[in-house]
Amino acid sequence: LSLASTSNATSFLEAAAAVLQRVAAPVAAVLHDEFQDHKLVEELQLELSAKGIASSTFQINNSVGNLNLTLTNMIKAKIRNIVVLCDPGTVLNIVNLAQKTGTLQPNYFWTVIDTGVRLASIEDLLPANESANILVIRESAIDLKTASAGCTSQLKTVFPDCQTSRY
After folding, report:
1. For the chain, what is the radius of gyration of the CA atoms?
2. Mind listing the pLDDT tens digit for each residue in 15-26?
3. pTM of the model
4. Which Gene3D superfamilies does the record associate with it (predicted)?
5. I want to staple 151 with a disulfide (CB 3.0 to 4.6 A). Which of 44, 128, 162, 165 is the partner?
6. For 113-123, what is each residue's pLDDT tens digit?
7. C-alpha pair distances (Å), 94 with each of 31, 140, 145
């Protein structure tokens, strides 16, 4: 679990698209819930498209059937890059079900645009001796240079210049 911060909330979408571009994602799934403005979701799709990344958008509700069907469809379509733009409760439900369906394995890359979820809540859902690729992008007054964890090796894999990056 890595955290990237920006003091400008409007650059969240650009940051998420930049992450996927850096990992050379050909396609991404965008999971959003009914609490997100459709214009925001459209803007994210435009950011991804501008970077040459195709996207499939899924509106998520908190029913297990809806989440399970969405994750199953992503597995069948071999979509390995997922952007989550949901309220905190839905984010936790998605991470919990993703762990159960095997979509938190290292060959999946998750980017969560933070809407208030506690990082400790996500970490509590992750198995102790397994790794997962989850990047949380959130608004923060502290940048990566002064964050307690600094620029982790996992974050450097995605952002080699993260100490000077504006994301």
Report:
1. 15
2. 888 888 888 889
3. 0.76
4. 3.40.50.2300
5. 162
6. 877 888 888 88
7. 9, 24, 30
